Amino acid sequence: MKRLVLPLALAAALAAPAIAAADEGTAKKNNCLKCHAVDKKKDGPAFKEVAKAKKGKPDAEAKLAEFILKGGKVNKEDHDPIKSKSADDAKVLAKWILSM
Question: How many domains does the chain have?
Answer without folding.
Answer: 1
